[in-house]
Design a protein that fits this description.
The complex is a heterodimer of chains A (385) and B (555). In chain A, 76% of the residues lie in helices and 0% in strands. Chain A is an all-alpha fold and 385 residues long. The N and C termini of chain A lie far apart (48 Å). Chain B is an alpha+beta fold. In chain B, helix 5 crosses helix 20 and helix 9 runs antiparallel to helix 18. Chain B is built from 25 helices and 9 strands. In chain B, the strands form 2 sheets. In chain B, strands 4-5-6-1-7-9-8 form a 7-stranded mixed β-sheet, covered by helices on one side. Chain B has a two-stranded antiparallel sheet with strand order 2-3. Classes of the chains: A mainly alpha (385), B alpha+beta (555).
Chain lengths: 385, 555
């Protein structure tokens, strides 16, 4: 136990040093500041200070460790997940940018813990859970459908698997969810314009002017022909439906998470997650497909639900909003590493070494690049903003 | 092989052939720069045995400085002899070879999967593949290279069973390397991977492999020498990833902006090579993006617009199921799938050449992975079909089939509309639409003028597309190749001329005073408002209704 805590302490210290180092050269807060949903409803402006978002980030490291120990009963998995969470540029940049998503990640992890540990225990636990949920819903209203979809999906899965549902637990969760929603519903009734403004700010999937222009062009070209079926195939609704589908598919592209993306704070030359992590992650996906298709389906669906805020944004995938899935991906990477470490297969051993080499190599380049070129690139990007 | 199977394959091939040959001279709307160059060089070889620069039977055609691979040009020679120097003559080899591919690749799919049903579905998917159809409707080397590559891999798989393939397989593989640049990197890597994957069989058949490798080495030697020491290295240098505009713009930072105060160690760790490596990885992974795969990979429409991906959207379901079968690798269609590692290797290595070059997500440079992608899709398709057939509830089973059939039809019509309606309108200019008409107009009264001047820069939205009008003049005037090789050329600073044709930028302010001159240019160089109506000989419009060219006689 002490050994594990010592490891965790070292990782936390390293993560803090890394964040201080990066924030010394790159000041990101101007890019991600977003108000809390509830404060907008109250016509009050509040943004998360960087020190607080960074603190949430560090707390998340501890939470992710706790999730692994509590739910998967594995200290090694916990240590690995916590370390990967601490050193990933995706999270580092998020933590030092004052983003509300550092808080949202923590709250999602807490809900994960609550759902897995039975809620039956006490009224106090239920009350605590209500508070966590209330904060979650208050930060971003998109977390409301995310939460209810996950609960619904979990119980539907249970029903289809066992033809039996733990009705009490399901209704308990739903009731707690609705009770947590009541203050927000009250505020929405009092200030519907606030909700509309927030909705317009958060849901921008169909607002891309380039897309709308291009759809108009396509329809214009088609209208010149007298081809009836064409209008059935190509109309605003089919295109927007397709856009939604493609945007959802885009959340699954490995390049989004494992290679550098322009959409994340401009062009940061480092990938959100080090490229080397893709090897254990793919191994994990492969093992899940092989051993537990049900587990894969569960993982996949929760992944998609957690990316809803990113799907609905203008420039999707939005890596700030998609950060909600970061614990899920990191858990996959850690489990993949566990498999590679335990396997006696020569290929697995080679892949493990290759992965570790790539991660260490990219991390060193990242540390060197941040002060030398990244700051220059980033300055150019903020100037254009 | 059963007669019914042959008949079925013939039907699939004919359907595929129709999709490739139907109106292939009109859509794409015009011969592009490479096509006129290929056509005229083939014509030149036919008439004189030499290319446009007077080099006898070259193994690399200098053309307009891009050093084209030779095979397609030589294949076009009989086609030009048969059909003449025209659009059909140039596009016929691609359409024919791609149609033949449908029939012959069945055997490749059968050999790779060991399963007839999968091979049939793969042939169907190949016949209707938008990726394959698109590149078979105009002259591109990559499609011919793919044909040879497919035959080479088929031979490689049969090398231990039939002796004939010991010689034929390296022949086809090397031929594919002579045909297109991407194969030059891919084939050696793939052969190496094949030997590793089949190392146990290789050990027992080392004599056959030795003969294979020696044949391969001998055949590839001239190409190797040309690539390392000759003209082909120019091509490699001009397309290499370091020339990528996004890499230069965003990954590298101008030296003058980099602070000088940092330690040498930090500077060493942040060097260009390391950054290039990670940029390459990014380009590599980008090829797995849904946008490339399903809705814009072929670039048949303007950017930021929905178009056509390299596979149909309905194949997304097949591909996911295919990945599942590949990973799980359990009994499939009553037999275990063969060659999964080889198919996976094919895809993973096949993206390497494209990722090492400039430009984002290049569907032509990755065309060589098409058989592997089609096989993956068809494996998934058969897997799903079997599972749906197992559903006992009649209504549910038929409901699934009906919904899926509706989705497939929706997809097919959508892609048809993209090909038939939107592509000609949106991408006409990329295929140099209007070049034929403008050259024909200029040639009509050629004798009336002392000089005909073509502006090489075009573009309806701005003068940013550099064309090669002299090649269109050579092609559409059927200029005698022997004469062209022998006459003196007027090569100046940013100008080129032969006979009475001159290619240079037009400046209306000075050119309007010239006598007996015909000017051919865009409204950017020939501003319509400054030109008298009687001076305008003709106007050429694109399919989208925009004015592309003006033909003007100042005096």
């Amino acid at each position: 136990m002490l050994k594990n805590l010592l490891y965790l302490f070292c990782f936390v210290i390293f993560a803090i040093i890394l964040r201080l180092y990066v924030s010394h050269f790159l000041v990101l807060n101007s890019l991600t500041n977003t108000n809390f949903f509830i404060f907008e409803m109250l016509n009050y402006s509040f943004t998360l200070p960087i020190w607080l978002s960074a603190s949430f980030g560090i707390l998340n490291m501890i939470l992710i460790y706790y999730v692994c120990v509590k739910i998967y009963s594995s200290n090694t998995l916990g240590r690995l997940s916590s370390l990967i969470y601490g050193i990933s540029p995706w999270i580092v940049f998020l933590d030092i940018s004052g983003s509300i998503y550092t808080l949202l990640i923590g709250l999602t992890l807490l809900i994960w813990i609550f759902i897995n540990s039975s809620l039956k225990r006490s009224l106090a636990m239920s009350a605590l859970f209500s508070v966590v949920l209330f904060i979650l819903f208050s930060v971003d209203f998109l977390m409301i459908p995310v939460f209810f979809l996950i609960i619904l999906f979990l119980y539907l899965t249970e029903y289809f698997q066992t033809k039996h549902i733990q009705k009490n637990k399901f209704f308990q969760l739903m009731i707690i969810g609705f009770i947590s929603l009541l203050p927000i519903i009250f505020l929405v009734i009092r200030n519907p314009d606030g909700l509309r403004n927030n909705f317009n700010k958060e849901v921008k999937i169909f607002d891309d002017i380039k897309l709308i222009n291009s759809l108009n062009n396509l329809q214009g070209e088609l209208n010149k022909l007298n081809f009836g079926l064409g209008r059935v195939i190509e109309n605003k609704y089919t295109y927007l439906g397709e856009h939604l589908f493609y945007t959802t598919l885009n959340q699954l592209a490995p390049a989004t998470y494992f290679t550098q993306q322009e959409k994340y704070f401009g062009f940061l030359n480092t990938s959100p997650l080090y490229f080397g992590f893709i090897i254990p992650f793919l191994f994990y996906i492969g093992i899940m497909l092989k051993k537990s298709f049900h587990g894969f389906g569960l993982y996949f669906t929760i992944f998609i639900i957690l990316t809803i805020p990113s799907i609905l944004s203008l420039k999707s995938p939005d890596l700030v909003k998609a950060s909600l899935v970061s614990p899920l991906i990191i858990l996959g990477i850690s489990k993949g590493y566990m498999y590679l470490m335990q396997s006696k297969n020569r290929l697995a051993k080679t892949m493990l070494m290759l992965s570790v080499f790539l991660v260490v190599f990219q991390m060193i380049v990242f540390i060197a690049d941040v002060p030398i070129r990244e700051s220059v690139r980033f300055e150019g990007f903020t100037n254009t903003k | 092989m059963k007669k019914s199977l042959i008949l079925l394959l013939l039907v699939i091939t004919i359907v595929g052939g129709v999709l490739r040959f139907y109106k292939n001279t009109e859509n794409p709307s015009s011969l592009n720069i490479d096509e006129v160059s290929i056509g005229y060089n083939a014509y030149s070889i036919l008439k004189t045995g030499k290319d446009e620069h007077g080099v006898f039977m070259p193994i690399s055609f200098e053309s307009v400085g891009d050093y084209k691979p030779p095979v397609l040009i030589y294949l076009t020679v009989p086609s030009i002899a048969l059909f003449g120097l025209n659009e059909f003559g140039v596009r016929f080899p691609n359409a024919l070879i791609s149609t033949l591919s449908i029939f012959l690749f069945f055997f490749l799919f059968k050999e790779l999967s060991g399963n007839t049903k999968t091979a049939i579905l793969a042939s169907v998917l190949l016949a209707i593949s938008p990726w394959h159809i698109y590149y078979s409707r105009y002259a591109v080397e990559a499609l011919i290279a793919l044909f040879f590559l497919g035959l080479g891999v088929l031979g490689l798989l049969r090398i231990f069973k039939e002796r004939i393939w010991i010689i034929l397989s390296p022949l086809f593989l090397v031929l594919s390397m002579y045909t297109y640049h991407a194969e030059r990197l891919f084939v050696p890597l793939f052969v190496f991977a094949f030997l590793i994957i089949h190392k146990s069989v290789v050990r027992t058949n080392y004599k056959k492999i030795l003969i294979f490798l020696i044949t391969f080495g001998i055949l590839v030697l001239p190409l190797f020498i040309s690539t390392i020491f000759g003209s082909d290295s120019t091509r490699a240098q001009t397309t290499f990833i370091t020339r990528d505009i996004e890499y230069i713009r965003t990954v590298l930072v101008e030296e003058k902006n980099i602070p000088t105060t940092f330690s040498p160690v930090l500077k060493f760790l942040d060097n260009d090579t390391f950054l290039l490596f990670f940029y390459f990885l990014r380009k590599y992974l980008n090829y797995f993006e849904p946008s490339f795969l399903f809705y814009s990979g072929l670039g048949m429409t303007m950017s930021d617009t929905y178009g056509v991906g390299i596979v149909y959207l309905f194949e997304a379901i097949f591909i996911l199921a295919g990945i599942y079968v590949f990973v799980v690798n359990k009994n499939f269609n009553q037999s275990k799938l063969k060659n999964i590692p080889l198919v996976v290797t094919w895809i993973l290595l096949g993206i390497f050449p494209a990722a090492l070059t400039q430009n984002e997500q290049h569907s032509l440079r990755t065309l060589l992975i098409l058989p592997a992608v089609i096989l993956l899709s068809s494996v998934g398709g058969i897997f799903l079909l079997e599972h749906v057939q197992k559903i006992k509830k009649f209504f549910l089973r038929n409901l699934i089939f009906t919904i899926f059939a509706g989705f497939v039809i929706f997809n097919l019509v959508y892609v048809y509309l993209m090909f038939a309606v939107h592509f000609p309108i949106q991408k006409g200019e990329a295929f140099m639409e209007g070049s034929k008409e403008v050259v024909e107009l200029a040639l009509k009264d050629k004798d009336k003028y002392q000089e005909i001047i073509f502006d090489p820069v075009r573009g309806v939205d701005g003068p940013y597309i550099v064309s090669i009008p002299h090649m269109y003049v050579l092609f559409y005037s059927k200029f005698d190749p022997a004469l062209y090789q022998s006459i003196p050329k007027r090569v100046g600073n940013e100008s080129y001329g032969f006979d009475k044709f001159t290619i240079r930028r037009i400046d209306w302010r000075s050119d309007q005073d010239k006598n007996n001159v015909l000017l051919v240019g865009t409204p950017w160089s020939l501003p319509e408002k400054d030109i008298k109506p009687e001076q305008i000989i003709g106007r050429i419009y694109l399919a989208n209704g925009k004015l592309a060219f003006l033909v003007v006689s100042p005096k």
